[in-house]
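Technical appendix A lists one of the benchmark inputs used to test multi-chain prediction within the project. The record comprises two sequence entries:
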Amino acid sequence: MAHYEFTMPVTEAEVRALRVNDTVTLQGTLYGIRDATQISLFDRGRTTRFDLRGHAVIHTAPNVKRVERSAAFPAGYAPLCVGTTTSDRMERFTEPLMQRCGVRLIIGKGGLREGSLAAFGGLGGAYLAIIGGTAALETTWIEAIEDVDLDDLNPESLWKFRVKGFGPLLVGMDSHGASLYADVRRHALERRAAALGSLGVKS
Amino acid sequence: MKLDLKQVEETAKELYIRALKLLPPDLKQGFDALAARETDAGAQRMLGTMIANIKVAEQTDNLLCQDTGIPIYNVVIGRGVEVDGPALKQAIRRGCERATREHPFRSSVVHPVTRSNEHTSCGRGIPVIALDFSEREETLEIEMIPKGSGSENNSFLRMAIPAEGSDAIKRFVIDCVLEAGGKTCPPTIVGVGVGGTADLCVHLAKVAATRPLGSSCDDPEGAKLETDLTCAVNLLGVGPQGLGGDSTAFAVHVETAATHITMNPVAVNMQCHSARRARATFRPGGVEYGY
């Protein structure tokens, strides 16, 4: 259970070194992405001017406030509350995010499925778990919104955040075929009969 | 008591903001109770982070969670309250819009087909405004619940049949919690509706999921199910965030209604650990805020 400090972007080798239960803290750039962003990119053929190669994306749609552009607010947005959404809805976008955009790390909550695990193994990626519903804390790790693309999708725009000490995040799925979510699910299914038995119900 | 609709609008605005920032005391106690008996070290750390987040939100005057949810206003009108019903609903809707624009925070509400967002947290039929009545003299209560989507997306209905008995209810609840895994932001409050029509059953599940921790079903049969199911779901080991541990649910809450001789409906609606709720009580002397 090692801890890693990553200044983004990272290389394939750095990501392949990660194992489930390791922890990671990010510095520098982090991109925010959501359902509508990925539907636009991968189903509707839109493109982004951002270079996501080697970067991390977080499943988010932040609360922001429009402000005057300045050095502190280069995109004209102040981050008010930046949190994380359930990843599972975006399962089918993991492979194109990695294959077409070169993304290496996906940050989310609740985990992803077998297709994503295969993509992490085949292309060199990992899933970093954040604790959902703790956005007030997460917001203290965001320094600024540096830029924004596809902003007609607001709040599901493609956000470019500058982060400082973003973590520690738990490696929940790695490039070696391990998934903490699959492990917990398998154990929970094994306990189903005992839970039903406690209620006097046959499984 | 004649209701001042301008005050209702202000209160509807204030309630949304308060709900997003201040977690009710029963939830804080619920976290302490889970943390006291959690045996998994990782789960213990996650509960600690969730508890720390509640403090950070208070200290930084920030929202607890980024999900501003679907706004729900539950209005209970007592005796001797004089109010223009349609104007009351309009005032609540205006307050909801103003909270979103003036705070500001994210409007999480879109048209279901076009997906367009008016950036007001309002739309067709939203906010949900549910009206009910009570015996309380000269009292009107508004409860505001921002219902997050991670938990709401894990809502289930099964029209079981009488021959399956109450075992069908219990099995369904266990399987829904298994199916939801970490997607609902556990630990959750698992709301269970038992009986009624299909729509009433789902509504009961929502009422159960959003009831304060520590409250119990006023039907003794429902209360017994609550006790038994709370123990059973916490045997599954789903744990906080679906990453393992004892703390899968704060509680299972049940609400019941009579049903048809041929029916045995059961519904599950879940509430995430950020189980936000705010309440305002209007009396002749003024408005009082609570949870």
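Chain A has one domain: 3-198. Helices of chain A lie at 12-16, 35-42, 94-101, 114-123, 135-139, 180-198. Comparable benchmark entries are summarised in Table A2.
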